[in-house]
Amino acid sequence: MDAKPDYSFEREVLVRFAHCDPAGIVYFPQYLVLFNGHVEDWFNEGLGIGYAHFIGERRCGLPMVKLDCEFKAPSKMGERLTLSLGVTKIGNSSIALQLRASAQGQLRVLSNQVLVTTSLDTNKSIPIPGDLRHALERCVAELGGLRTPC
Amino acid sequence: MDAKPDYSFEREVLVRFAHCDPAGIVYFPQYLVLFNGHVEDWFNEGLGIGYAHFIGERRCGLPMVKLDCEFKAPSKMGERLTLSLGVTKIGNSSIALQLRASAQGQLRVLSNQVLVTTSLDTNKSIPIPGDLRHALERCVAELGGLRTPC
Amino acid sequence: MDAKPDYSFEREVLVRFAHCDPAGIVYFPQYLVLFNGHVEDWFNEGLGIGYAHFIGERRCGLPMVKLDCEFKAPSKMGERLTLSLGVTKIGNSSIALQLRASAQGQLRVLSNQVLVTTSLDTNKSIPIPGDLRHALERCVAELGGLRTPC
Amino acid sequence: MDAKPDYSFEREVLVRFAHCDPAGIVYFPQYLVLFNGHVEDWFNEGLGIGYAHFIGERRCGLPMVKLDCEFKAPSKMGERLTLSLGVTKIGNSSIALQLRASAQGQLRVLSNQVLVTTSLDTNKSIPIPGDLRHALERCVAELGGLRTPC
Prior knowledge:
Strand order of the largest sheet of chain A: 1-4-5-6-3
Radius of gyration of chain A: 16 Å
Oligomer: homotetramer
GO molecular function (chains A, B, C, D): fatty acyl-CoA hydrolase activity
Largest sheet of chain A: 5 strands, antiparallel
CATH class of the domain at 33-73 and 84-143 in chain A: Alpha Beta
CATH architecture of the domain at 33-73 and 84-143 in chain A: Roll
CATH topology of the domain at 33-73 and 84-143 in chain A: Thiol Ester Dehydrase, Chain A
Shape of chain A: globular
Helix content of chain A: 25-40%
Structural class of chain A: alpha+beta
Protein name (chains A, B, C, D): Acyl-CoA thioesterase
Distance between the termini of chain A: 21 Å
Strand content of chain A: 25-35%
CATH superfamily of the domain at 33-73 and 84-143 in chain A: Hotdog Thioesterase
Order of helices and strands of chain A: EHHEEEEEEH
Pfam family, one (chains A, B, C, D): 4HBT_2
Organism (chains A, B, C, D): Pseudoduganella aquatica
């Protein structure tokens, strides 16, 4: 019997001229900018929590504390990447995510990331705010549990 | 009597965290990256000429030779910018464009740009390739002429 | 008799992999990031006014309101660019600058820029703070006057 | 008895306005751009192998295949970061590096990276070219061995 599908928030992005390096492929830090934009879209559209409002008005930060990436194959200008995001762990003041970039049925980048919720006024970690925790738990529950990191 | 509307290719983009500076507003070079992405979308979707193919396979360049910008009001993270593009002049080997970024009914950035068609092999200017010229002329004709630069 | 030399604050920067596009030359918005960094160095080292302190602690902004650039020749990865800056006008709440990027005796980019002093708390323009005005006037006087824009 | 010091190539960089996000601290992908620039300086100045020539003329690529980062403390605009690099492993066609960014005696970012030597013409991995291997071995030998990853 098949495993239940992982929760996954997906969007497509075009590999643009501005993402590419002199070798004509995505410059690796640009994947991280794209993944960050994907987390932003997930907040806005998946969790229903306005990212700009969360950072700008509520003065919450979401700094990354841990990042692992495997770059499995290059991506070329003009390709369409599918970005996908799953939650792997919800801590007290941290959220672990797995992000993937794929194109043409091929995994290009696999990334595990740990973000921490902070106060931008004190620069210290704070417990995940209630509405965010609630939205995270709803997301995870909808698809039968956390994604397994790999 | 109203003037005929300018030809205008429009798309919306979200002002993302990654576009903003420590003042919480769009860092000005990011507008130019957004405008460049808009030219890319215009090639792909407006002119019907694949931008990545034009650069990558046909080895044509589109370097900018002249750029004027007025930054009229700041844009904040979370706003949706409307990017609009009109052709102001078609030369022998150059294309003059006007780009605008607006939000909430307010013009934020107005930019006039001159791009030149080149060969990436010789790094010299070349006449605008026939299919591109044809697509440009069709675009301009559809709305009754070139946009007036301002 | 030779004209008096323009006031000029100069620094060298390496054209890095990260500055270059799939055509192997500096992606044009990167020149603007480099020029912004040069203004930063000029504040710190030429004017003797800490840029980070000016923005971060004193909460003054320096948004650009007007930008003109001519891109005269491309710059390749590995080249060393000489960035040079001169003051062309000191207004009540605005500073006009001319920036140049050159390499191998050849002007690559010429840019005229107008920056405005603002309060980051009100987002409105403010008169140029006294210490900054004083430093600007000293700079200009040292070399016999404002640079002529061109 | 003290351990022999790790081999370390060090340079200082200023945290610039352009590196910082709306929270006023370095936007994490910018650390990776800074580390990439540090690898570039290390090639040019530490290994004596021109990075731009290696990529541009010899058509060798150095794509990253694996990246781990720990972001231990934020860095603010105006701080001076010390970037340091050590070799942790030399493979057949791969080089493992450890990079650190520190300021004020505090480790800010620790990163382990694996780069692979490729041909830009075939996009396949190639054995580390002889002159690069020789330079790498000399670097490591000078300080009594590989750095221990941590």
